[in-house]
Design brief:
Belongs to the selectin/LECAM family. By secondary structure, the protein is mainly β. The chain has helices spanning about 30-40, 50-60; strands spanning about 10, 20-25, 45, 70-75, 85, 110-115, 125-130, 135-140, 150-155, 160-165, 170, 175, 190-195, 205-210, 215, 220-225, 235-240, 250-255, 270-275, 280, 285, 300. The relative contact order is 0.10.
């Protein structure tokens, strides 16, 4: 603590969730008040709504007369906007100032006190010279390094806090990444994933490959998006096709076997020449993994002898 006096502080909000308000029974100027708050709590109170203003006033002990309480709104020059410490907000409610305030009565009234009394100005603000002595009002944030995961922003509220998850992560503390549907290997293929935050979860990237003789139909790479859906449908592995051989050579016949699909990878066709004809080329050809026949279609040549 930077000040030599013995201070008495009072916690004004019960509970461990959300920020708490504190004040000192020792009077100090505005700069000392802020330093006191930063050394002992988080900072001087920065009011952001009329609801918060009223709530704070309901908790502070009444004062019958000045001095009242310093709050964390100030400005550096006469024509500057009033600005809250910590967040640089310029929020000022429609009915925040006391009657005829702010009046900058001494041309250097650049700090603000809040009236907490039983009169008509209860909860209203008054601009004051920053050197005057008043009671500080501080707040202590409940958001800490452990409040939320690294994948969230901790947002303070009155009496509570929330973890505002970054895209791709889910409540309550945003530790768990959103998970996409499990992917299976395509028939006649495989896939391999790089997972940043767990299997098939946000930002997982999966690549697909097909077995020999099959080609990939669809996107070769899928990414799990923040909405829990893959960015593309899962691809398929389709067997490679050779040109169809739906005719028989002159003077012969052709017999084909198709273990996968007609005229596709590993299909074989055997040529048989009729009596009186002979082969030109191989009598058997096969559809290879590139979708080409291993040889040209054999022919049967010769003249049929009629007796």
């Amino acid at each position: 603590v930077a000040f030599p006096w013995r201070s008495v502080q009072h916690a004004l909000v019960v509970g461990t969730m959300g920020w708490t308000y504190h004040h000192s029974n020792n009077k100090m100027n505005w700069s000392q008040a802020r330093e006191f708050c930063q050394n002992n709590y988080t900072d001087m109170v920065a009011i952001q709504s009329q609801e918060e203003n009223d709530y704070l006033v309901s908790l502070l002990p009444n004062r019958s007369s000045s001095p009242y309480y310093w709050i964390g709104i100030t400005k550096a020059h006469k024509n500057d906007p009033w600005t809250w410490v910590g967040n640089n907000s310029t929020w000022i409610g429609d009915h925040s100032w006391a009657q005829n305030e702010p009046n900058n009565n001494h041309s250097t009234e650049f700090c603000v006190e809040i009236y907490v009394n039983g009169g008509a100005n209860r909860g209203k603000w008054n601009d004051e010279k920053c050197a005057n002595l008043k009671y500080p009002v501080c707040y202590k944030a409940s958001c800490s390094q452990d409040s939320c995961s690294v994948h969230a922003d901790c947002v303070e509220t009155i009496g509570n806090y929330t973890c505002q998850c970054h895209p791709g992560f889910q409540e309550p503390h945003c530790e768990q990444a959103i998970v996409c549907q499990t992917i299976l290997d395509p028939e006649q293929g495989s896939h391999h994933c790089f997972d940043s935050y767990g299997p098939y979860s946000f930002n997982s990237s999966c690549r697909f490959h097909c077995n020999l003789g099959f080609r990939l139909v669809g996107a070769p790479r899928l990414v799990c998006q923040a909405n829990g859906h893959w960015d593309h449908p899962a691809p398929l592995c389709q067997v490679k096709q050779c040109p169809a051989l739906n005719y028989a050579p002159t003077g012969g016949s052709m017999d084909c076997s198709h273990p996968i699909a007609p005229y596709s990878y590993n299909s074989t066709c055997e040529i048989n020449c009729d009596e009186g004809y002979e082969f030109v080329g191989q009598n058997q050809i096969r559809c290879d993994h590139t979708g080409q026949w291993t040889a040209g279609v054999p022919a049967c040549t010769g003249n049929m002898v009629i007796s």
